[in-house]
Design goal:
5-stranded parallel β-sheet, globular, 2 helices, UDP N-Acetylglucosamine Acyltransferase, domain 1, alpha/beta, 7-stranded mixed β-sheet
C-alpha cells in the first residue's frame, strides 16, 4: 500500500506570474481589498484592471474581499461582491453579468490529487454565467460552471456544474427546484 509522501510534492510547473507583480499585488490586496475600510468600488476596480483583470461597469466590491491573482479574473458588468468573499483564483475565474457573490462566498480553483503519492496540484477554471447568485458562505469547487441564473444556497458546496435557472442546496449541492424570476 502506498502512502502520501509530501517530500515528493512538486508544483514547479505552476507559475502564476512574476515575483515582483505577486508581491505588489499582495500588499494592494491586504491594504485596499482585505480591509474593513470601505474604499470605493471604483478604486478597487481600477486597481484590478491595473493588475490585469478585465472588469465591466457597475461592479460593487465590498470590504474584506480576498483576491489571489487579478490577472486570472474576468468580471462582467453589474456584479456585486459581498464582504468576506474569497476569490482563490490560481487559474481563471470568469464572472458574467448581474452575478451576486454573497458574504463569505468562496471560489476555489485549486485542489490536490489525493490518489497520487505526491499529492499533485490540480487546477480547474470556474465560470459563473449571467444572473448567477452564490449564497453566503457557499463554496464553488474547481472546474465548476454555474449556468445562467442558477442559485447556490447559503452554506452549500458546488462540486459539479449547476443547471441554468435551478436552485441548489447542500454539501454536495443537489438540485432542489427551478428558479422562476417574476
Amino acid at each position: 500500500m502506498l502512502y502520501v509522501d509530501l517530500s515528493k510534492y512538486n508544483n514547479n510547473w505552476y507559475n502564476p506570474g512574476n515575483t515582483v507583480k505577486k508581491i505588489l499585488w499582495y500588499f494592494i490586496n491586504i491594504l485596499i481589498f482585505k480591509t474593513l475600510f470601505p474604499f470605493p468600488s471604483a478604486v478597487k476596480v481600477k486597481l484590478l484592471q491595473v493588475f490585469g483583470a478585465r472588469v465591466g461597469k457597475g461592479v460593487v466590491i465590498k470590504p474584506d474581499v480576498n483576491i489571489k491573482y487579478p490577472w486570472f479574473l474576468e468580471i462582467a458588468s453589474h456584479v456585486w461582491i459581498g464582504e468576506g468573499v474569497w476569490i482563490d483564483n490560481l487559474t481563471m475565474i470568469k464572472i458574467g453579468n448581474n452575478v451576486v457573490l454573497s458574504q463569505g462566498a468562496y471560489l476555489l480553483t485549486g485542489s490536490h490529487d489525493y490518489k497520487k503519492e505526491s499529492f499533485d496540484l490540480i487546477l480547474g477554471e470556474i465560470i459563473l454565467e449571467d444572473g448567477v447568485w452564490i449564497g453566503a458562505k457557499a463554496t464553488i469547487c474547481p472546474g465548476v460552471i454555474c449556468r445562467s441564473h442558477s442559485v447556490l444556497a447559503v452554506g452549500s458546496t458546488a462540486t459539479k456544474d449547476l443547471e441554468a435557472y435551478s436552485i441548489y442546496q447542500g454539501n454536495p449541492a443537489i438540485k432542489k427546484r427551478k428558479r422562476v424570476i417574476a
